User: Fold this.
Amino acid sequence: MLIGKPSNIRSSEITDEEVYRNRRQFLKAGSLALAATAASTFLPGCVTNAAESEQTAPAAKGPYDTTETPTPYQAITTYNNYYEFGAEYSLPAKNSKNFKTSPWTIAVSGMVKKPAEYAIEDLLKGLTAEDRIYRMRCVEGWSMVIPWRGIPLASIIKKLEPTPSAKFVEFKTILAPDQMPEQKTNLLPWPYTEGLRLDEAMNPLALFATGIYGQTILNQNGAPIRLVAPWKYGFKGVKSIVTMRFTDIMPKNTWAVATPSEYGFYANVNPNVDHPRWTQKTERPIGQRLTLTQIAKGEVPLKKTLMFNGYADQVASMYAGMDLTKLF
Ligand SMILES: Nc1nc2c(c(=O)[nH]1)N[C@H]1C(S)=C(S)[C@@H](COP(=O)(O)O)O[C@H]1N2
Ligand SMILES: [Mo]
Assistant:
């Protein structure tokens, strides 16, 4: 998400990414060449390399997994959108280091039979986390492939027993200005708020994620628990959730409140509906390996964005008859 023009941010952000990719390429090329000539020599340069690739990408196994190559763990954990910790992609990893995620409670309220303030352990007790490799697409035009570990949101909601009148569920991020520097400013209306229609929340794709690459989710990615709805733009994925409220009125989500002409409630990934200031037809995968020529020429390969981010088979029926150019 972004307030200014993407071009304002892109140049600096691309530089960081490219410096990183470039360095990896040199490390890799260097270690391979050395390994070929002196196979038994200890290579100090490779230590960093090994540490960086410690998290090996899992292979697609389940029916919901994409077979696309996961984005490197390093990129997933250093290129983040989490405005509470800074409005630049590199800042959340730096500014969220001391964020306290335990003890953690989630307050459940509204049209539900089991409202309570739950310790996260109690809310998740008896439920099984699953590994899912999902494509993720940000409204700003970048994408990642993330191996999540998470609890299907449907199983949490079933346990809470919404009443028949509940049509939506609203989620809020923690309000902790003492720990989240940007919450002391009016960069956005705090706390960050998102919502789903109840049928969307019950869709088997929706997760409450607690891990990435089989590791406990890091603070910059929304620890201890965040929403993942891969057919929607990234901003729906509200992080560090402390409330779930069941309601019959469509929740007012943060970005739709902040910039209603640009962002709506549904936020379904849709290559046919441009953002008022830029296209949604293509996307730029983060962490892709570029050649030095591509870097020099600033040619970043783009991918075609798919309707519902490629999840049409699982989700399109939920929007039958809706005008998605108006309900964006
Ligand atoms: N609380 C909170 N949640 C948030 C955001 C935010 O600024 N604050 N940014 C959103 C946006 S725009 C995106 S693209 C995703 C990015 O998640 P990631 O950094 O784990 O990739 O988080 C979403 N969740
Ligand atoms: Mo985003």
The first strand starts at residue 105 and ends at 110. Residues 1, 81, 138-140, 234-235 surround molybdenum atom (ligand 2) (CB under 6 Å). The first helix runs from residue 6 to 37. Residues 5-52 have pLDDT under 50 and may be disordered.
